[in-house]
Design goal:
Layout: H1 4-24, E1 26-32, E2 38-41, E3 44-47, H2 56-68, H3 80-90, E4 92-98, E5 114-122, E6 125-133, H4 147-162, E7 167-172, H5 179-191, E8 197-202, E9 225-230, H6 238-245, E10 252-255, H7 261-272, E11 276-281, H8 286-295, H9 299-312, E12 313-323, E13 330-338, H10 341-349, H11 352-358, E14 365-366, H12 368-377, H13 383-389
Parallel strand pairs: 7-11, 7-12, 8-9, 8-10, 10-11
Antiparallel strand pairs: 1-2, 1-6, 2-3, 4-5, 5-6, 12-13, 13-14
C-alpha cells in the first residue's frame, strides 16, 4: 500500500516537470524506476540534474495521478491495480491525460497541460514517456509554411468541407516533427471557416479543440462538428473506425497514422467514396512517403495501389523541426509535393527517383533543401545544422526550374 508521502512526492515531481517543460519549451519527459528524470528540450535529451531517482512506489503514484486525469470521453475510471494488471499482460499502454480532468479536483493544483502517456515495462520495471501537447493550437500561418503552401493546404481542407472534394492529404515526417500540430491547425481552418463534420480517429486522442467548453473563448466562432474516437475506447482499430465513419455522414476524416496495410486500404476506400482523408506517416521526404505506402503491399498489389494514389493523393507535406540559432525553440523545415499531372505520371511509373525529379520544377512543390537554405540565410538555423540536415545525393543538390 502506497504512503501519503509517496503521493505528495509524486504530485510535487509531476508539477515540477510539467512546469519545467512549459517554461523551457520542452516536449517530453522520461521516468524510469530508480532513475533520475530526463527531459527533452528542443530536441535534446537532458538529465534532470536536480532530480532524485524516482522510487517505484512514487512512479506508481504518478501513474495513478495520470489515470485520474485520463481523457477520451466517458470511459469508466481505471484503478492503479487494474491498470498494472493490463500493463503486465500487454507490456505497454497508451492514453491521453489533461490536468483539467480529474476524479477529485485535486489535479487543478497542477499546471495546465495536455499529455500523451506511454507506459511500458522495461528491464528495471515500470517506465513512462510522456509528451506535453500544445494546449493552444497555433494558426496555420504561424507554423512556418510559405504563403503558397498555406493557401493550398487551406483550400484543400475547405474544399473537402464545403464542396465535397475527395482525396488524401498526407502529413509525413519523423517522430517529434510537429505532425500533430500541423494536423490540428488544418482542422481549425475548417472549424473556423466552414460548417462540416470532421471525424478524428487517433491512438490516443491528443489535441482538444474545446468546441464544447463554455470556458473556451474561441468556441463561439467554431462552426464545425468534430467527432473524437480513440482506438481501444471507441473503436478497436483504425480500420474499424474508418468503416464506422462511412455511416456517420462526415465530410473530412482525420486518421492518426497509416500504420498498416489494412489502414492504408481503408483510407483509400474512404477517398474513393467521395471524402477528404487527412492522415500521417513516418517518412523522410515526400517521395519517400509514397515508397513507404507501397512497401506495405506485395508485388502483385503495387500497381493497383499506385493507380489509387494517382487518383486520390492530393499533396504530401513532409516536415522536420530544427533547433533555432537563438535556441528559442525549433524552426519548421519541410518538403511539399502537390499531385500535378507530371506527379501523377510519376506515380503510375512507381519510381521514387522520378517523383524526386518532379520537385525540381517549382510548379510541383517545394524542396526540403530549398527551405533549409532559406532558414540558414535568414539566420534562423546555424550553418552546422544546415549541413547536418541537408538531403544528400543526386538532384537534391542541383538547381531547380520553374
Amino acid at each position: 500500500m502506497q504512503s501519503h508521502d509517496d503521493k505528495t512526492e509524486a504530485r510535487q515531481l509531476l508539477r515540477q516537470i510539467i512546469s519545467d517543460l512549459a517554461e523551457r519549451g520542452g516536449s517530453d519527459f522520461h521516468l524510469r524506476t530508480n532513475r533520475v528524470p530526463f527531459l527533452r528540450v528542443h530536441g535534446t535529451l537532458e538529465r534532470n540534474l536536480s532530480g532524485r531517482p524516482v522510487r517505484a512506489s512514487v512512479l506508481q503514484e504518478i501513474v495513478a495521478l495520470l489515470l485520474a486525469m485520463r481523457t477520451g470521453g466517458g470511459e469508466e475510471p481505471v484503478t492503479l491495480a487494474a491498470f498494472m494488471q493490463v500493463l503486465r499482460k500487454q507490456a505497454s499502454v497508451n492514453f491521453s491525460a489533461s490536468t483539467e480532468t480529474g476524479c477529485d479536483g485535486a489535479e487543478q493544483a497542477l499546471p495546465a497541460a495536455r499529455l500523451r502517456v506511454h507506459a511500458f515495462i522495461e528491464g528495471n520495471g515500470l517506465a513512462l514517456v510522456v509528451r506535453r501537447l500544445c494546449c493552444d493550437i497555433p494558426p496555420l500561418g504561424e507554423l512556418g509554411f510559405e504563403q503558397r503552401v498555406q493557401q493550398r493546404l487551406r483550400n484543400l481542407m475547405l474544399a473537402g468541407a464545403t464542396a465535397g472534394d475527395n482525396g488524401l492529404l498526407l502529413v509525413a515526417g519523423p517522430v517529434g516533427s510537429g505532425k500533430t500540430t500541423t494536423i490540428g491547425s488544418l482542422i481549425n481552418e475548417v472549424n473556423t471557416g466552414a460548417a462540416a463534420h470532421v471525424v478524428r480517429i487517433e491512438d490516443p486522442l491528443e489535441l482538444d479543440f474545446g468546441q464544447y467548453s463554455p470556458l473556451n473563448p474561441r468556441s463561439e466562432i467554431y462552426q464545425s462538428l468534430i467527432t473524437d474516437r480513440e482506438i481501444g475506447i471507441h473503436c478497436d482499430s483504425f480500420r474499424d473506425g474508418l468503416n464506422d465513419a462511412l455511416r456517420e455522414d462526415f465530410n473530412i476524416i482525420v486518421v492518426g497514422e497509416m500504420r498498416t496495410r489494412e489502414t492504408i486500404e481503408a483510407c483509400l476506400v474512404a477517398c474513393e467514396t467521395g471524402h477528404l482523408v487527412v492522415t500521417t506517416l513516418h517518412a523522410s521526404g515526400a517521395p519517400d512517403a509514397v515508397s513507404r505506402i507501397l512497401a506495405e503491399f506485395p508485388a502483385d498489389r503495387k500497381e493497383f495501389i499506385c493507380e489509387q494514389l494517382a487518383r486520390n493523393l492530393r499533396c504530401v507535406v513532409c516536415q522536420r523541426l530544427i533547433r533555432r540559432a537563438d535556441e528559442r525553440g525549433r524552426a519548421l523545415a519541410y518538403e511539399f509535393m502537390e499531385v500535378t499531372g507530371s506527379v501523377k505520371a510519376a506515380l503510375y511509373k512507381r519510381d521514387p527517383a522520378v517523383l524526386r525529379q518532379c520537385l525540381d520544377d517549382s510548379r510541383n512543390g517545394v524542396r526540403f533543401n530549398d527551405v533549409l537554405l532559406r532558414l540558414r540565410d535568414r539566420g534562423d538555423i546555424l550553418p552546422a545544422d544546415y549541413e547536418r540536415c541537408l538531403m544528400r545525393g543526386g538532384e537534391e543538390t542541383k538547381g531547380r526550374t520553374g
